[in-house]
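Quick one before lunch.
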Amino acid sequence: MMLLHPLFISQYGERGMWESAEEIGALDCRECGACSFICPAHRPLTPTIRLVKSDIYANRSKK
Ligand code: SF4
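Model of the iron/sulfur cluster complex:
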């Protein structure tokens, strides 16, 4: 079972640390929206993770 850390994934993404985000399972996110829904700070976690995933795939295609 993969335990995801939405906050860490989004923070890595905001800093352009795509490899670190991938290492902690960003691509396993199913974009269900639950983390955004329950976030007490109302952080846009799911949209940010969606962008992180897009950037990871984009960086892969450059290699
Ligand atoms: S969007 Fe869903 S699957 Fe992705 S990190 Fe948030 S709660 Fe987990």
